[in-house]
UniProtKB/TrEMBL annotation:
Organism of this sequence: Klebsormidium nitens (Green alga)
Domain of life of the native organism: Eukaryota
Organism classification: Eukaryota, Viridiplantae, Streptophyta, Klebsormidiophyceae, Klebsormidiales
Transmembrane helix is among the record's keywords: no
UniProt xrefs under PANTHER family: GH08893P, L 2 01289
Name of this chain's protein: Thioredoxin domain-containing protein
Keywords: Signal
One family name in Pfam for this protein: Thioredoxin
Domain spans labelled Thioredoxin: 38-144
CDD domains: PDI_a_family (cd02961)
Coiled coil regions, renumbered to chain: none
Endpoints of the signal sequence: 1-26
Length: 225
């Protein structure tokens, strides 16, 4: 019994240390005294940040960027500089939106770079300059001047498809009557072509089946003779 209690106590201590190291020490400092940013993706974003589920892992300042983006590279450099003396106050991370479409769609990322702060169960968009001092000022209280937005929930594949179809339908309805008529005629032409193609395939199958039956009947008649 005592052994079981000791094991449970050790397990709780281990988990507590693990959680603490994940939140407080998330900004990793390498041996050369430069910070290595955390990289989030579609699978880890909500799990790590808990942006829409309590934000118990800490305050997160996230860069939504892309490769071959000079402004993103400048921000990453400033982030590394900032992380060296700011690691206990905010976790600095980045997301490559070109490789993580679910996260990009969730936060409606239409261009890069985009910076968002997640704290106090809210989301704040950053629109200032890209220096470490400007980021520090924003994190230390400047964010209060920005609108506090609700964090969008994770969206499933079905919900994403529905929203995309709804958007496409809304865009279609915005077209002028002539364009809408042209689109409808094009859809009708495609549907008619598909029906004809399917009918032609069905006819070929029927003809082939009839030939096979005739050959089979002829072979049976020869055997009977």
């Amino acid at each position: 019994m005592a052994a079981k209690r000791s094991f449970r106590l050790c397990s709780l201590v281990f988990l507590s240390l693990l959680c603490f190291s994940h939140s407080a020490g998330a900004n990793v400092i390498d041996d050369d005294n430069t910070a290595r940013l955390l990289e989030l993706n579609d699978k880890t974003f909500e799990h790590d940040t808990q942006a829409a589920s309590g934000q118990t892992t800490g305050v997160w300042f996230v860069l939504f960027g892309a490769p071959n983006c000079p402004a993103c590279e400048a921000i990453e450099k400033a982030f590394r500089e900032l992380a060296q003396d700011f690691e206990d106050n905010a976790i600095l991370a980045k997301v490559d939106v070109t490789g993580n479409p679910v996260t990009a769609y969730r936060f409606d990322i239409q261009s890069t770079p985009i910076l968002k702060l997640f704290r106090d169960r809210k989301m704040y968009s950053y629109t200032g300059g890209h220096s470490a001092d400007q980021f520090r000022e924003f994190l230390e209280g400047g964010y209060r001047a920005a609108p506090a937005e609700s964090v969008p929930l994770e969206k499933g594949v079905v919900q994403q498809l529905r929203e995309k179809l709804a958007t496409a339908w809304a865009e279609y309805n915005k077209l002028n009557p002539l364009a809408r008529l042209s689109g409808a005629l094009l859809l009708l032409l495609v549907a008619t072509s598909l029906i004809r193609f399917q009918q032609a395939g069905t006819d070929r199958v029927k003809k082939t089946s009839a030939r096979v039956k005739q050959l089979h009947k002829a072979q049976q008649e020869k055997k009977g003779r």
